[in-house]
Amino acid sequence: MLYYGGDYNPEQWPAEVWADDVALMRRAGVTAVTVGVFAWARLEPAEGRYEFGWLDRVLGLLHRAGIRVVLATPTASPPPWFSLAHPDALPVTAEGVRLCHGSRDTYCVSAPAYRAACRRIARALATRYGGHPALELWHVHNEYGTRCHCEHVATAFQRWLEDRYDTLDRLNEAWSAAFWSQWYGDWAQVLPPRATQYLPNPTQLLDFRRFLSDELLAAFTEQRAILREFAPGVPVTTNFALGDWVPVDHARWAREVDIVAIDHYPSAPGRTADEETALAGDLARSWARAAGRPWLLMEQAPGVVYTGRRMVPKAPGQLARHSLAHVARGSRGVMFFQWRAPRGGAERFHAAMVPHAGPESRVYREACELGALLGRLSTVDEPASAGVAILWDAQSWWAGEGPGLPSADPRYFDAVAAAHRVLWRAGFAIDFAGPEEDLSGYRLVVVPSLYLVTDAAADNLRGYVAGGGHLVVSFFSGIADADAQVRLGGYPGAFRELLGIRVEEFHPLAPDEPVALSTGDSGSVWSEYLHLAGAEAVASYAGGPLDGLPAVTRHGYRAGVAWYLSTRLDDTAHGRLLTGAAHAAGAAPVCAGLADGVEAVRPSGDGPLFLLNHTDQPVTVPASGVDLVTGRSVDGAVKLSAGGFAIVQERSPHIDPP
Ligand code: GAL
């Protein structure tokens, strides 16, 4: 069964609506819904007083309809009685403002009262529903990521730092605490980063994010242990939020969940949404693959794309295409936020499978079509590797966006997204890998702006290239060590020998100040005063203070090749370079000769070939087999309508008729 459904909030509706919900779910082919994510106040209206009757009825209705239940613990939104009884469990901002209930996620993860209340409600749910026949999966909390800077957090942070550094001397060294007289003489003096007079200590900030990731993880594993105790065998997960505000190292968390679940909301409509969808799917499946877990798209918006300022309706067919882009990458299904649009509350205008207009709507009709299609598919294996990987590291992201950097513009996620985008456009299947992971299976590894690099990662990359790997490193990589301290002797300290270069000075560029290159392309964001030390220049700066100096280099290192980009190439030039490097390394796109905007995803097993036409023109793609969408046989070519798709169960090209 593929999961198909979404967050279902029956507690927001009178019971008369529930039967209608279930009937509409069946019509839409819904197989699973997530229940109870924000229902704490209705489940435990006063401390220790539980009201499970309504949930019993809901689970019974769903079970009789054959709909599986992803049961949430509601701990992302403590009820008002809780925060009034335990004001010390309300979060405190870096400025020292204690927040009040009235929204959601208003808790301090380190507050003992909050943790105890979470354990209690998790245990109450687990004892009551652990053996329920509709229970499919536990969904702990929602999008862990809340920050707090209070005294509870200070104490927990101090314990975490003691564990990490053992002695204060080592902390003082790691934090460069001699700088600005920040030398600590007692663990109790070390605080979470709070509002301060000028630039804060960058390693303190980095460690705080590391700590938060671990602290939130401890809150998750505490609930997981309770759920496993009362419901052995039922998998446990939590949904990962993607975004730069999230202080969670997803690659590490992936090892702690039974199924990696992500929420994905593209930031802009059109092709950007298609590209971001592919990126999110590739990240999730890569975290899952490295952890040996399956994965699932737990939330997406059914009808619209949110741009921050306004909502833009998804183009017809985009909902299905985006969903299939995830399924093609191995997602165990397609889940939405949310089932039915509420009448009130902060998210009353959020998209839903049943919008305010009701089932007589395009979105519900599309949801029904998608449900019918998914009902005919089964789980597919993750895509076959094309031998191309992009390195991903949350800690490097956090460190590379701290205070006091030479420029605020080389945004890590932008750099990662740009590398993914241009390779995706060129039709490659793209994995993400950790910097210390075994890379020997990859022909090409791309390293976008990996500011912080551990010694082990530097050795790993050196060994990879020495063994014949091809590597493309972009600017502002390999600058700092695990303590976020600068590696000396010329940038990039971790990779000088490998890249055959030495960078003497950074020349960051203003946003409206592109730099011309000898190839006729242009660079932006960054430039560098770079010396060759074994590498050859492939492109040089043309004009400006760096006129004639190398901008892009290539270094044959032992059995492999290491490229370096000292500026951000525009997408065309970047795509040309990465595609050229991939081909030279022996990697090939999923399908040769696809039109721009047509995506092909081929699972590693014998699952079908997914062909997604993200353009507004019909296209024809070579393929043979049976199209699982139409049931028709495909002989040599399949026609995809504008915005359309096909799922071709291929005939093996190797079994030609005699
Ligand atoms: C998610 C969250 C949902 C809902 C949704 C709105 O991040 O988990 O509860 O708020 O965003 O887009």
Sequence stretches where pLDDT stays below 50 over 5 or more residues: 653-658
Coarse morphology: globular
Structural class: alpha/beta
Oligomer status: single chain
Arithmetic mean pLDDT = 96
Main beta-sheet strand count, sense and barrel state: 9 strands, parallel
Provide the gyration radius in Å: 26 Å
% residues in beta strands: 15-25%
DSSP E strands, number: 28
What is the distance, rounded to the nearest whole angstrom, between the alpha carbons of the first and last residues?
37 Å
For the largest beta sheet, what order do the strands appear in spatially?
A: 5-4-3-2-1-11-8-7-6
The proportion of residues forming helix, as a percent range, comes to 25-40%
Account of the 3D structure:
The protein has 658 residues and is α/β, with parallel strands linked by helices. Helix 6 (151-165) crosses helix 8 (202-230) and helix 10 (270-291) packs across helix 14. The longest helix is centred in the first third of the chain and has 29 residues, at 202-230. The model is unreliable at 653-658 (pLDDT under 50). Bound molecules: beta-D-galactopyranose. Residues 142-143, 241, 263, 265, 299, 301, 337, 347, 350 line the site of beta-D-galactopyranose.
Features:
658 residues; alpha/beta; seven-stranded mixed β-sheet; 17 helices; 28 strands; 31% helix; 20% strand; globular; disordered C terminus; binds beta-D-galactopyranose
Brief rundown of the structure:
With 658 residues, this protein is α/β, with parallel strands linked by helices. The protein has 17 helices and 28 strands. Beta-D-galactopyranose binds next to loops.
